[in-house]
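Build the 3D complex.
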Amino acid sequence: MTPALAFDLLLIAALLWSAARALITADVFRAVVLFIVFGLLMALAWARLGAPDIALAEAAIGAGLTGALLLDAVGHLRAKWRGPER
Amino acid sequence: MKAWLTALIALLCSGLALALGAAMLALPEFAVRLPGQVAANLDASGVAHPVTAVLLNFRGYDTLLEVAVLLLALLGVFALSRHASDHAHPAAPAHPVLQTLARLLAPLMVLVAGYLLWIGAYAPGGAFQAGAVLAAAGVLLRLAGLLPAWAQPGRLLRGGLALGLLVFLAVAVAGLPQGELLHYPPALASPLILLVEAGLTLSIGLTLAGLYLASAGWRQ
Amino acid sequence: MSAALLYALAGAALFAIGLAGLLLQPHLLRKILAFNILGSGVFLILVGLGQRDGTIDPVPQAMVLTGIVVAIAATALALALARQLLDLTGQMRLPEDRPDAEPADD
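Done.
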């Protein structure tokens, strides 16, 4: 097995693991953090596929901006649970 | 949800993945080779980077409509958050270190966005990446408490949001007398694409930042 | 088998994971996550299959670039809708069919 193939298989395993964990983890905050990890791993996968344009966009948009939106929604959700006085 | 139904759905989804994988492995050889066609027409496209050539020239329709979709999504977010945002949203006070860092980084990010926009004609980069970096600068400033949420965007901001689509539409329609929509004259293709990309960068950056700023910190 | 085809196969698996999550998870935030994972799977299939003979193909790459930006627009709109539902009903999940059903505890 060549090092490149080993890296590809590891990266794919990490992608599938983070995606599955993001959907089954009990805590919503953890799920969002795992999703951001998934987005960064996707950026690596794009780089491996020879698509630096998509890798740049995925890191900035898929992981960064989507992550910010999701984390803010989690904050909104938690503020709601703790009651309106907070 | 019932356990058997969950198991059934999981089973069906796994079966779908296996069927998709089997279909991919059974695919025949390519009948049409697109990379060769892109390379053959790259000289006439006005840019030297194939992905930018596809985005702004060969498949300009996709990009044009995509910017419209982006604008529509922002309008939807505004429509939803308006009633909750009647009162002003002062930015939350942030740590002074974060504020200083944001003040230092934001101009640098604008510089990076400009670089990405320029380099897009020759190498990986372009309007989308540059717009994303601009938007990230906006989100950073918001997190540092230096930008208010957008309860009611003013005229200037609305103009900035629509600018990219308007410039793109104007360039697309300007080609009509010469033949067809979105057809750039080869001599002018390079500056026209840069013009469209500059407008797109500003609008995509503002729109993506707006998607965050319109709802961020919105607590009832 | 080329590396690109390997990533296309991974995309098929991600598509299935996302679809299962979309169907099985009642929480709307997780449905949005699942929708994004499903979309990433589709993008991987698009680029991976387009480059399965090992040559870089800019056409699917440009389409995926467009798709990523549309995906974040859809995500932001979906999150705004989910927040609205949270503010109106106090929970971030779709209402049950029976109007008299007790809301499930988290």
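Residues 3-89 of chain C form a domain with the Helix Hairpins fold (CATH 1.10.287.3510).
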